[in-house]
């Protein structure tokens, strides 16, 4: 089974989710230049693509990936959006245009909101499971439009009567599709439509159970061997385990000093998405002082950043060899697309590219290519 590595652009800025680390902060006038520098650094470091988070506090990913396409040569952009934000035809037409202009470098990440509160703040009052029903129809429509003119569809949320890509746009490749979410409805969406079903890091056996469930669901659509799995996790790695743990401790100590634990609790209270196993163990109601090393949920897997509400919730912490070993362990349970990043962003993606990715050179294959 092949493996590939993407990273993540700091769409929120570096300090929005990480109090205590302002070493790479960029003011508003330099922000797009900072994102461009980040994208070019990610590409030079050997990553195949970059995840672009879509959140109300962040810049809009479609706009940013359009700006950054000319700053990079081969980097692929995983653009997150919700089906209520754009019509299926507009999404297809925009993406076909982007694919033609960039050599097919866009990937869709279909998201459906992890907080009812935030969802309503941005104007979507559709209940949780119905959002996934809508996303299912959205993807039916998108795939149909990509087959060419004459597409017919009659759904609850969308209809089409004879439309489809034609002319030069029809030559563009349909993007790879990523989905996420661990609810029953989210798993079903991924089973039917995802090329990559994305997850946040948990203990390997917990991820293996989720992978098995989604793969079983995909069998009903004839996609058991087509669907693949990705994981987003941060990385804190140094030459020695002791040095990596010291950095994790620094991040934790400074974040506690600035009150980030309270901010993390507030953030968790707004979420309606399923809590991961380790999140149930935080027991936020306890007021006792905690040590950073209490948050290791598995060898080299640290949930300390998740305690502060920092996505993606976990980091691999350890020496270069230890981090490589954990990646291989997750790969063995079925993960073959890893989204790796860290704080501060520029320095850490360069470190990962230099000291982690070379271990996997013989196994690398671009995302979407089965080997």
Textual characterization of the structure:
It is a single chain. The chain is of the alpha/beta class and 371 residues long. It has one domain (4-360): TIM Barrel. Helices cover 39% and strands 18% of the residues. It has helices at residues 31-44, 61-69, 88-102, 116-121, 128-146, 184-193, 204-219, 241-257, 260-270, 304-307, 320-332, 345-355, and strands at residues 4-8, 49-52, 76-81, 106-110, 151-154, 159-163, 177-180, 196-200, 228-238, 296-298, 301-302, 315-319, 335-341. Strands 1-2-3-4-7-8-9-13 form an eight-stranded parallel barrel, surrounded by eight helices. Strand 8, helix 7 (204-219) and strand 9 (228-238) form a beta-alpha-beta unit. Helix 3 (88-102) crosses helix 5. The longest helix is centred in the middle third of the chain and has 19 residues, at 128-146. Mean pLDDT is 89; it is low at 19-24. This is Alkanesulfonate monooxygenase. It comes from Pseudoduganella lurida. Residues 20-336 form the Luciferase-like domain. Pfam families: Bac_luciferase. Keywords: Flavoprotein, FMN, Monooxygenase, Oxidoreductase.
